[in-house]
Known about the structure:
The protein is mainly α. The protein has helices at residues 7-42, 52-60, 62-79, 82-101, 115-146, 152-178, 202-214, 216-226, 234-239, 243-254, 256-270, 283-297, 300-313, 319-344, 346-369, 375-389, 392-402, 409-437, 439-460, 471-477; strands at residues 186-188, 194-196. The chain is globular and about 70 Å long.
Amino acid sequence: MDKNYNLTYIIGITLVATLGGLLFGYDTAVISGAEKGLEGFFLQATDFQYNKFLHGITSSSALIGCVIGGAISGLFAMQFGRRNSLRFSSVLFFLSALGSYYPEFLFFPLGIPSWNLLIAFNLYRILGGIGVGLASAIVPMYIAEIAPSSIRGTLVSCNQFAIIFGMLVVYFVNFLILGDHANPIIDKSAEGILSVNAASDPWTIARGWRYMFGSEAYVAAVFGFLLFFVPKTPRYLALTGQIPEALTVLTKVNGETKAKEILADIVATSKEKTEKLFAYGTAVVIIGILLSVFQQAIGINAVLYYSPRIFESAGTGNGMIQTVIMGVVNIVFTVIAILTVDKFGRKPLLIIGSIGMAIGAFAVALCDHYDKKGIVPVASLIVYAAFFMMSWGPICWVLISEIFPNTIRGKAVAIAVAFQWIFNYIVSSTFPPLYDFSPMVAYGLYGTMCVLAAIFVWKWVPETKGKTLEDMSKLWKK
Length: 478
């Protein structure tokens, strides 16, 4: 196996790119600490009645943007390049953070909740979601197109580490912002109408959630700045006819001899008349879509977005502390995936992870059925999340970034990622009413999906360990 590559240069590029992953995690998980204060704020509106249905939509509204961002990512990646698309996403992250912090800007009086302000807030969250959707598709693509094949899985998995690290960072940030303050107490009348208990902490309702959303602007600014110091990817440069520039980047990464060999393969595959989406058959596209669907249908984001609320209902005291502990465990298990993905392969990790998740999810369902509170349901949730982090979390992104041939990668990745965010939205927006109806039903459903995911991987997903991106054309032609 050829190891004559410039590891320092590759790591530097990867670290900058994975800031997009960190923002992905930060933006999607910031709601976990802010959603209760946000709910308390809009429950005080006098021109409409805020309810669980609206709260589920508001908590998940960024995911609408994620669907849009994922869907347009292929167009952006080809028209403007991978690097410029990431620059655009950093601007969206920045504007969304400031807008979510101060949704009243220019048009509404500060601190007075209303139906129109709810719409404005959701639009700012959708804006950030578009940034997440773009980053979620293009960061793995960018890294995969820069990385040598022998360490590609490891480097793309680093993006998942960045996503989880971003979540852990925002869990800590939310925890520190909350400080000695408490989340509002939400009362429910006999008629099912929600209201804020008079004993609730007014600071959390008025300011706490704003600071949580606004904190993202700092990271977004750093990401946008650093993107001026990384190159365009050699695959994009070759596909757009910039051959000398592609050779320059490949030489910096792989050395002169290997660079010429890789460039020849890239140019050969880019000239094939196989640019239509289904040029390699429908199987590759359907498998890519189903990888995305299963990553979300197993229900992980229902835990990540609402973890403090879930832990509090399990009777373990401060849900924010339990959420931080889960974040640390998630980091550890993501590192396991990074260290093993290029040794054991993609399929074994996905199958093991699916089985482990199923065990955790079914255990949570049983705890609810037998009204078991305390450490057992909390530990089961953490097991469920941990097995996701060593499997479907990073490995799905690795496969989506590498499974498609060069000439259809931009379009195919965009479709797969769009489906991922559609199902993310479905799962996340339906979780509050489903969990309110029956936690046992919710986690029983997710556990069943984990079993189906394991069967799908075992039967239909090809192993891509050690293959070059150009090998994908040969694999799907067989």
